[in-house]
Amino acid sequence: MRLHQDNAVKDGHNLNSKKINKLLCVTHIKVTIKKILIPIRSYQFSTKIEVKMEALFKPIKINNLVVPNRIAMAPMTRSMSPNGIPTDQNLEYYKRRAAAEVGMIITEGVEVSHPASSGYPNVPNLRQDSHEGWKKLISAVQEEGSTIFCQLWHVGGIRKPGQPPNPEVPGYTPSGLVRKDKKVAYEMTDNDVEDLIQNYVKDIETIKMLGFDGVELHGAHGYMIDQFFWRDTNVRKDEYGKEEDLRTKFVCEIVSRARKLVGNDFPIMLRFSQWKQQDYEARLAPSPTDLETFLGPISDSGVDVFHASTRRYWEPEFEGSDLNLAGWTKKITNKPTITVGSVGLDSDFIGLYVGNDKANTSSIKTLVEMFERGDFDMVAVGRALLSDPEWVLKVKEGREEEIVGFTKEYVEKYF
Asked: Which of 90, 116, 191, 353 has the greatest CB tally within 10 Å of its CB?
């Protein structure tokens, strides 16, 4: 399994890219962004209050979709779909977690129907021969009372030469860059950009047709959509590289065009991050004002939910406030947000690649306190759900001591 973050650099130390590639790679309301006041107070978590886990088990309505609780399974690429076709093994993997009361399954990244989309072997796709497998898998998850979103993923310039199914196709990026001053990919023309937007829109239509409850656009971690967002990889001089809207037009075109075809009731979610696999210190928005500028046009284009990806959910995003990235996103857009990042564990995923083959279970008391004060609306759980498919049930029933801790073996095969 891959965690969607490769070629990582942390504290000046290069991580082996081949290893990092195997890391664990949610009523539509039109919202107009208004200027916000930056809070100057710092929230303090009480050590005396009784944390009530039931707060996480209340349903939430996204457009007309009712999600039974506030816990999602984070998207984690497993590379276990030969030829891109979902298998019975894939079905059982998701069904097991749905049966244990995960409220929303977000699939592993599913390739956009574009020749340069794929970056890794055996990643599922949306080609015609995969449709039957997807329909079976979707039905199995929904029959357990869960909901399922398809994460739509284009790797952009992360693609390496020789990758099937089109080994002759290079990696594509907005400006040929994979990071600042590193131009090793194909630079997209105006026609390429337009074609790719159309591919995304057609795939979103397909995702709805197959029966998914919603779609998540993977706009994080230095992949294609994020390569449009990031100033280090997007130096275009056209409308898709405008600094004024922080290079958001590409995703806004996808969302606004898709919205016209799938209607207002079909949930569209965007996953985004400050950090990139190419640079963990990268910042799309260095300040709350910049984050407002970034999120405004995306929110207005028709995104219903924002999935704010961080490595550690408990870390504040900006000085002067304890709000994390999901908290700031909710404050700015007034739309539902999902937080994520080492939930239920005591260390982030990088530990796997610097000699720590396991992560211990950790209390989610702080998480629940943040949720109860209204910082965010849902919580995505990643590695903790790999090692223990019943993580949600055990939390709900107060059986935290029975939770299975995470070790590297859970990355390497299904459980």
From this structure: 116
